[in-house]
Every structure is written in C-alpha cells, then in structure tokens.
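Batch job 17 of 40 flagged for manual review because the log was empty.
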Amino acid sequence: MVAAVRTPCLAASILLLAACSKKDPPPAPPPAPAVDNAKAANDKLIAEAKQFVKDADPKLRKLLVDASLAEWTNETDITKEHEAATAKASEIQSVEITKMVKAARRFDPVLDKLDPDTKRQLLLLKFQAQPAPDDAKQATELATTAAAMQSTYGKGVCAVTNGKETCQDIEFYGKALETNRHPAELLKTWKTWHDSVGHAERDLFSKYVGLANEGAKAIGFANVTELWQANYDMPAATFAPEVDRLWNQVKPLYTQLHCYARRKLNTMYGDAVVPKTGPIPAHLFGNMWAQSWEYLYPELEPFKGVAPIDVTPVLAKSYDAQKMVRMGESFYTSLGFEPLPPTFWERSLFTKPAGKDVVCHASAWDVQYNDDLRIKMCIKPQQEDLWVIHHELGHDFYFQHYFQLPILYQAGANDGFHEAIGDTIQLSMTPAYLKTKGLIDKADKNDKATINQQMKVALEKVAFLPFAVMVDKWRWDVFSGAVTPEKYNQHWWELEQQYQGISAPEPRAATDFDPGAKYHVAANVPYMRYFLADILQFQFHRALCKKIGFTGPLDECSIYGNKDAGAAYGKMLSLGASKPWQDALEQLTGQREMDATAILEYFAPLQKWLEDQNKGQACGW
C-alpha cells in the first residue's frame, strides 16, 4: 500500500516539473565579482620590483665597496697578492651583479608600469659592472685576465739585472718624449713602450674579448659593443650615428690644426721624417699616443714672445704636490662647494712612493661611496699636472654632490658628464685667472695673445678629439667580431689614419698590439666618455658664462669665485644618474642634445687664423 500511495505522488511531481519547464526560469542569483587575475599579477610584480630595488641597494653597495677597496690597494701597491685579491673581488662583484640583473628580468613585463624611480634603477643595474659569463670557470678567468692586464700596464717595462727586476712605468717613458726633438731617440722610446707593454697585453686582451662577450650575453646583450652603446639613454643603434654627427661638427677645425702642425713639423724635420702631405708619424707629438700635442707648443706657437703661458717655472720653484692640489680645491670652493674632507688629504696618493710599483695613471675615487674622496696621481710640478689635478677634482666634487643618493644613482648623468666637470673648470683657468694666482706675470689682451692662448688650449683639447673617437670605434669593431685578432693592430692604425691623420712611425706587425700601450684598453675603461666630455665641457662652459651674464668671447670667461655659477653647476651635479642625461643637460644649458657648436664658437678666432695660414696647402690626409 505504501508503494501504491507513493507512485501517484511521484507521477504528479513529474507532471508538475514538466509544466514548470515550459515557463521562464526564475532569475539566477547575481554572480560573484570577477577577479582580474592579470591586474592582480601585475600589481604583485610591481610591488616586488619596488622591494627588489630597495633590497638591492645594500647588496650592491657592499659589492662595489669591496671591489673598490681591493682595486685601490692594488693600484697603490702592485703585488701578486693584491692583484689576486683584486681579481677575486672583481669576480665576486661581476658574478653577483650578473645574478641580480638576471633576477630583475622578471620585471620586464611591467617595466612601463613602474614608477620612474624604480624603472630607472632597474635600467642602471645592467651597467654596474662587467657582467660575468654563466660558466663559473670563465667568470674566474675573466676577472684574473682583467687584473693581469691592468697590473702588466702599471708595472711598465721591466728588466732583470743580477737577479733583481726593475721596472719603468709610463711616467718615465712619457717624460722622455715631451721635450726631445731627435726623431731617432723619439722612435726608440716609442718602440720600447709599445713593443714591451703593448705586446705583453696582446694575448691577454684577445682572451678577455671572448670572456667579456660571454658576460654581456649572460645579461641579454649580443656583445660588449652593444652593452656599451646601450648605456646612453638612447637606443644602442642610434649612439654611433650620434658620435659621427658630433665628430663631423668639429672635424673641419681639427683638419686645419693638423694641416698647420704638419707644415711646421715638416719644416723642422724635413720630408724624410714628415711628408708634406698625408699622415704625420705618431712618435713626434711629445705624447705616447699622439692624443695631446701640448708639448709641441714651443714649435707651433703662432707669435713668439707674446703672452707666454707656462706656469711650470713657478710650480717647480714654489709648489709641492699637495700645494698644487690645494690650489685645485680652492677653485671649487670659490664656487661655494664644500671643502674636501680631511680623509682626502690622509688617504690620497699624490706622489709615487719609493720601493713600490703603482699605477701612476691619474684617477679620482670615492672608494667607499660615502664621501671617501681620494685621488691617485704621481704629481710633478708642471703645468700639465696642475690641469690634470683640476680635472680629477672635478670627479671628486661630483662624487661629493651625489654620495647620499641610492647607490645606483651614484654616477654621472652619463660617463661623458663625469669627465667634463673638471675640464669645464680648466676652461676658466684663463690667463687672467693664472695671473691672480701668481702663476704668470701678465695676462696680455690683444689679437696675438688670443691666438697664442687658443693654440695652447687647442693642442690639448682639439688635438684630442679624433683619438677619443677612434679608441672605442676600434673596440666596437673588436667586440662585435668585425675585426679578428690577426687584424687587431692593422685596424688600429687604419683608424688612427682615418680619424687622426696619424701613421705608425715604422711598419708594425700583426703580432704587435699597439692598442695595449694605452691604459684604458689594458684596464677595459670605455673611452667614448672622453670624446663626449670634450664636447660637453664647452657646452657647459658656454651655459655657465651666460648664467653669470658674461657677454665677451668665450675664451676670456672665467667662473672663478662666482657663487651663482657654482649653484647652477651644483644643481646639475646633485642629480647624479637619477635622471636621463638629457634632463641634466637641459637643466644647465637649456638644450637636450649634445652640441659641438660651443667648441667652434670658442675657437673661432683660431680657426680663422689657421685657415689663413694654411692657404695653398693640401690639407687633409
């Protein structure tokens, strides 16, 4: 009976359900709020990127300081132990920073969504050190090879006598070129340095190229060339054309200076040594690399006995190394900058210590990235070194202005800025300034004095321009693989002739390695910074002179003692690398593009004079 009762009830339920199905269903409950998984993932990645940058600062600081301390110790006392310690610290730095760069790649999908500060620090992270190859053995080889190249250069030309090794560094051989005017002796000195030091670097450098390229690939670059060219707040592919644009702006001025110098040297030495047309042999310029011609000033001086600018006699008589540095410091403090810290005077190396091999190549340091300012330099009481001191202190006062920024911002707006700061100050070391300092007796102001003074400056700064271009043009070709080891030396001299109008003093072999005779090649320091600095310093100088209301010729302007100029300069320096260089440049100059017209404006009187002197000559090479 129960079953009979249930059966009709079940049937009725089915009929009711069928009837209901023919009508609209009741409204469904509202769905739960949809979760934007992509946005949540992006927000999480953005937050992690900010934290990554925050955590990176102390890690980077320790890596950079450890490597810097080791390098300072080695460069001021070259020993096998210090070289090994430098290589180890450099290896650790490269490996760890490479790991950080790789770890930061996961933020690439949100890079354009990050705040400007986080995004910029992630960008700058890629350029903090020579990246290490993925292979641990190669990473060690990279570091030891780099340290060996630098120490080989620092020791110089060595010989063993009675079981004891003695070495002469670049200071000794460079000095031998400065005033000697006997071609055969100049050639012997030039060959000794290039055949010994340069040759010793060849195999090391060839090995280094492959290892360094592996490091660049490890962080996403095709090679070191692309890595270096990418470090300028512009697409890597646009940097080389930008360099060419700037070089072509100034090349006519250099060509006139070269034409004048060749004619004068031909008169001195005759056709057998210096031909009337074509390139000039490299050993005749008073400089190991023919990058500066200032020691030829006595032979190239336009007007004899007019406004001689030579402060060496006063320096040799009345100054020691520290007093020369004090003079340099006083220029910067006259602009309102803070004095150098007491530790600068305690820790710097001003003269070559007895009984030690040191790297005498001048350099400036904030060794611990905390206002631990120093310079390392074997100072001689001569004019060139006084100018170098002002250059190196430019680095230190740049460090001083930004050392409290995050570690990734403790650098120049670009590397050319860093080299330009002190050189801009040099442009204010006018004859009038030198007279106020008691370094010269008088500061004549007439057309002949102007041409003499401009010639003096041009033999350092204009003569330098093509050399500053070709060093990295050569390395770009080497690191990119366009030039192989058997063509290293040949290509070097091809570029020397193309840009400088300079030739090897005698035929050079494929087994020679003349690029290795230059410190920056041995030390793997990018060189395009010096070309950019040569452009920027005149651009900075023109802007600063305008800010103080100076309306006369640029070569007569000095910002010494002007606090307004110092405030404007300091404002730019305080940015460090926190903004793209275009922003820093615009802040000081109102321009967002590097511009060589300031050089042409500065040297306009000299260029016209040179063109008059060179009439009828077959200029060029």
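Reviewer: the log was empty due to a logging misconfiguration, but the result itself is present. Residues 46-170+200-242 form one domain. Unflagging and moving on to job 18.
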